[in-house]
Amino acid sequence: MYDVIVVGGGPAGLTAAIYTSRAGLSTLVLEKMSLGGQAALTYRIDNYPGFKDIYGAELAADFEEHVRDAGAEIVLEEAVGFDFDKEVKVVRTASNHYETKAVILALGSERRKLGIPGEEKYTGRGVSYCATCDGNFFKNEDIAVVGGGNTAAGYALELADICRTVFLIYHGGELPAMYSLRKRLEKRSNIKVLHNREVREILGSNKVEQILVGNLKSGETETVKLDGVFVAVGMLPNSDLLPKDLLLPNGFIQTDEDGTTALPGVFAAGDLRQKKLYQIVTAMSDGANAAHSTQIYLRDSFEK
Ligand SMILES: Cc1cc2nc3c(=O)[nH]c(=O)nc-3n(C[C@H](O)[C@H](O)[C@H](O)COP(=O)(O)OP(=O)(O)OC[C@H]3O[C@@H](n4cnc5c(N)ncnc54)[C@H](O)[C@@H]3O)c2cc1C
After folding, report:
1. Which of 37, 127, 196, 224 would give a disulfide with 122, using CB separation of 3.0 to 4.6 Å?
2. pTM for the structure as a whole
3. Ligand 1: which of 127, 130, 158 to mutate, most ligand atoms within 8 Å of CB?
4. Angstrom distance (rounded) from CA 33 to CA 53
5. Is 23 within 8 Å of 15 (Cβ atoms)?
6. Nearest atom within ligand 1 for CA of residue 109
7. How distant, in Å, are the alpha carbons of 44, 108, 173, 200, 278 from that of 113?
8. CB atoms < 10 A from the CB of 186, how many?
9. Residues contacting 242, CB < 8 A, separation 6+
10. Which residues sit opposite 75 in a β-bridge?
């Protein structure tokens, strides 16, 4: 039996595993694909302190070396079932059944996609899902933000400080973003809100050059020339397999800053948590906090 199983080998899970291993707790990391999570899939990262510009794959390789060095066991298997009812918890994969005293859930989330032609082709070449991550690559350029909620409005405001023109494209009438954000959008002369519009295709050569936009009221279609498209239409937490009593209605896990969940001995970290800023550094901070809480839980419950 392990002291702790960390499910998910992204920045949150790997940080948690470094902390628990270094605290002398036997630690298993279960990862369904490859270590590093979304960070490993990101081409370039320029907001990770200490590295002005680093390839995601390079950072992920460094994370892996650190985790292995700290003594965690890593198994590349997908967790497909969880039993958290008893003091000894069980995590199942297709071929194994692992017992543990505590679990740290760090399964992350995925950005919701538009599902239109060109989106996949130009991801990383003008299509982005994160203004905080990629805004700086579009200095003085024209971009679009797709969406109308708080995240989309926040992206538009953030990008208006960097880019020349920001088209905020929303398929409905009034934006669902909160009043204060809507008022701030109105004050920015370089933000143009396009209501009742739908982006139908992203076009370009090597990178994004224009988008095809449908007007849902008039039925007309127009092309807009630009350099980038930021998609902000929601995040999907990887929580389908988790017990429902851990989850909020939107599928994220509600925790305190210390990573404790509604179930004793079950902790959560990273993009799976309900929080305001989804970044590598915040995921890592969550991982460290969840590991620390796990240590306290094991000491109190198992005199570890
Ligand atoms: C395109 C893009 C660019 C980004 N750029 C930046 C950036 O420049 N700077 C920045 O700070 N942040 C960036 N982010 C955000 C950052 O990558 C995430 O906030 C961070 O990776 C979250 O870490 P995490 O460990 O919580 O989740 P993830 O990175 O999502 O890792 C979760 C891991 O869990 C695994 N997993 C899921 N389900 C299971 C299962 N059932 N069993 C086993 N394993 C499972 C997944 O395979 C994955 O490896 C970017 C995100 C995206 C999508």
Report:
1. 127
2. 0.86
3. 130
4. 25
5. no
6. 30
7. 20, 16, 21, 13, 17
8. 10
9. 82, 105, 107, 253
10. 30
User: Could you give phi then psi for residue 214, rounded to 5 degrees?
Assistant: -100, 135
The token duo for 203 is: 């076009």
Structure tokens at 299: 């000491």
- Give the distance (Å) from ligand 1 centre to CA of residue 38: 3
Any ligand 1 atom below 6 A from CB of 47: yes
Judge if the beta carbon of residue 287 lies within 6 A of ligand 1. no
- pLDDT, tens digit (0-9, with 9 covering 90-100), for 24-62: 999 999 999 989 999 888 778 889 999 998 998 999 999
Residue 206: half-sphere exposure toward Cβ, Cα within 13 Å: 0
Cα–Cα separations (whole angstroms), residue 7 to 80, 98, 180:
10, 11, 38
Instruction: Please indicate whether residue 163 is annotated as part of the active site.
Output: no
Rounded distance from Cα 107 to ligand 1 centre (Å): 8
pLDDT in tens, 100-124: 999 999 999 999 999 999 999 999 9
